[in-house]
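EI: anyone free to look at a 288-residue chain?
SC: sure, send it
EI:
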Amino acid sequence: MNEAKTLPNFKDLLFQQDGPVVRITLNRPKVTNALSINLSAEFTRAMEYLRDDSEAKIVVIDGAGGNFCAGDDLTEMGSGAWGDANQIMRRVRFYQHMANTLEELDKITVGSVDGYCVGGGLEITMACDFVICTESSKWGMPEVDWGITPGWGGTTRMARLIGRRMTKEINLLGALHPAKRGVELGLFNRTVADDALQNETQGLVDLLLMKNQQGLRQLKFMINKNVEADLYTAQGFEAMGAALTGAINGSWQVPEADGSHGWASYAANDPESPIRKRREASKDFWTN
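SC: here you go
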């Protein structure tokens, strides 16, 4: 946990925390909040900070200046700042780590989208738990027309969210779509009037804060893991989740569990403890 850690300093990103609620704002409005190398590094540091934080429960991600994010900064890519093919691969893997860390946070994440949400910006939203968009916002994956391909969710997460056929349409054609179509396809949760985004986002945050936070964490974990697993493995997660919930709610005592605590017995070094006795009986069994 990061109670003793210092919040990183940010130049292109705003990080505001009010108790259990964190708001992260991509803050390069003059370039539609394009993901420069520095902004991407700062966003990753913010995700790693939140990964280790135990106070935050809800994380809202938005963009400054009336836009969410225009994706990777093409001027940097064109200048050679990304380096050679090997360095590009390393950078893409770093960005995958960035999105994976966002997706795996044990907090509920909300993408609050206005204006343009394309390329890497859309990839950020696909790693969020909820996405709310203004009616006038536009989204898409235009990489194909710039001679590049998505690297951290534009084909992989998207295909898992909306299927391979629609993912091909979005990526191969490179069109910019209205927010409403994103809801129809399953990329976003809701569209709202352009002047209602802040209130709608706050309403969702307020509702989420009323929930059983341990329940939210368990549900998020199970859903994220289950979607990648076969049915029976996924049902195993559900069964274990139900047992954990029962234990948390007071039904933790199981008759067949002897109540011995291995680490306490080890520290006490009591040869008469049940754990020590069964360990002695087990350690040489069938070893000849």
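EI: The longest strand covers residues 13-18.
SC: 👍
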